[in-house]
Amino acid sequence: MTTPSARRRRSFLTAGRVAAAVASLLVLAGTGLASMTMHGLVDGLSTSDALGTDAPKSLGGDMNLLLIGLDSRKDQDGNQLPQEILNQLHAGDGTQGGYNTNTLILLHIPGNGGKVAAVSIPRDDNVAVSGIPGYTHAKIKEAYGLAKFYAEQDAAKQGVTDKAELEHLGREAGRRKTIETVRTFLNVPIDRFAEINLAGFYDLATVLGGVEVCLNHPVKDSYSGADFPAGHQTVNGSQALAFVRQRHGLGNGDLDRTHRQQAFIASAAHKLRSAGTFTDLGKLQDLVDAAKKDVVISARWDILSFAQQAQNLTGGNVQFTTLPIAGYQKVNGQDVNKVDVEQVRAAVRTAFGTAAPAPETPQVHASSTVDIPNTTGRTGLAAMVARALASYGFRTGELTTLGPAASSVVYGAGAKDDATSAASLLGGLPVSADTRVPEGHIRITLGTGFTLPAALGPHGADAPVGTTSSSAPSATSSSTGTPPAAGPQGGAVDGSGIPCVD
Known about the structure:
Layout: H1 4-7, H2 15-29, H3 35-42, E1 46-48, E2 63-71, H4 83-89, E3 100-109, E4 116-120, E5 126-128, E6 137-139, H5 143-157, H6 163-186, E7 192-197, H7 200-207, E8 211-215, E9 219-221, E10 226-228, E11 231-235, H8 237-245, H9 254-274, H10 281-294, E12 296-298, H11 303-309, E13 318-322, E14 327-331, E15 334-338, H12 341-352, E16 369-374, H13 381-390, E17 395-401, E18 408-411, H14 416-425, E19 431-433, E20 441-445, H15 457-461, E21 493-494, E22 500-501
Parallel strand pairs: 1-12, 2-7, 4-13, 8-22, 16-17, 16-20, 18-19
Antiparallel strand pairs: 2-3, 3-4, 5-6, 7-12, 8-11, 9-10, 13-21, 14-15, 18-20
Helix pairs in contact: 2-7, 2-9, 2-10, 2-11, 5-6, 7-8, 7-10, 8-9
């Protein structure tokens, strides 16, 4: 990890900047310069251990790279950016934004050198989260900030008072939770990640001397500062940020904004290729220096090896898609996107050209007795869970109906291993010991809205499709395994040139 003093000198970039910065490093590696030169250029990039060393890995030389765009007006020590910078960014007085991940793009880079696929996750998708007090579902953009808040709260209780240290601990927790949430939602491994921030579009466009973009229609929006005619035009740093931040006045709001982000990345990459940047060491140095100052990447990332794998990322051979949503609704007064998880995963498999994973048969041979309080309000669900678990050797104990409660698995003496197995079978419920539970018994509380996983055979297939929290919406499970041909998420954005978007 970098030191607090080093982190004070670094802020973040947005998705366009990190893609371009990484692209510049890749092409530089292919120019024939000595490895020592390459190592000198990349030395000093900020790194994070949030991915962990035991994270699932892609197979066959493939790589999944998650770009995390953080909508924060603060530096890595939690200090507000200078007002003159905020003015250029049209980003208010620094109190807005919080720590939402308003950009989440997963790049799939095939090991065989094929076309790179990039999928954008709409920021308001309401998805399952774990390990966040009081939440079983949240907007996917909120996972970072929620985890950060509670991690800092816990650290403060342990006596940590240094602001920069708290900020660092919080951001590491936010990164871990975002990676975990995306990985679980999409059911794919994440091999590398890069975190970036609000000022990146401004910085990239400035370093490149402007970026050409294209709009299908003229727009004017006081919230983002966007004021553009239709057609092709070159945007400077401040205009670039307005271009990618606008959502008011667009037919599909955030989903259209996602296309703006995708188009900007494609246009910036086109500018990098066509402007001689990769053969101009001065320009390359400017990009790499900015990346050293602003980009946080996963630790132990071998950039030189990555350069050999990802040449298509710099050649325009990229296609962007936005993952489908199942509709809109309000949850606790907030607008959220309903998602059909299987439909989303099918869309990812289609984009990445991968097959559906083979179902796993858990090797569980239990003997404990399960007592199941049902708090969902759905008659017969406790019996359904008991029948599903019986096929793994669990004995059925007392089935009761109680008032609202959170889902949990608690166990008595001698039942720890079986409790862990039951929790895993039921979708990863929290597990704890409880001396009030009799020896050899497990109490499985079915929280309001609990869903029996489909993997548990016919009992799971017959279970209601929904969420695990009264505050989370139901999603319609109409997926046939094929992503929709059209929807509010719109079509693909071609990354080979300068795409025109709304």
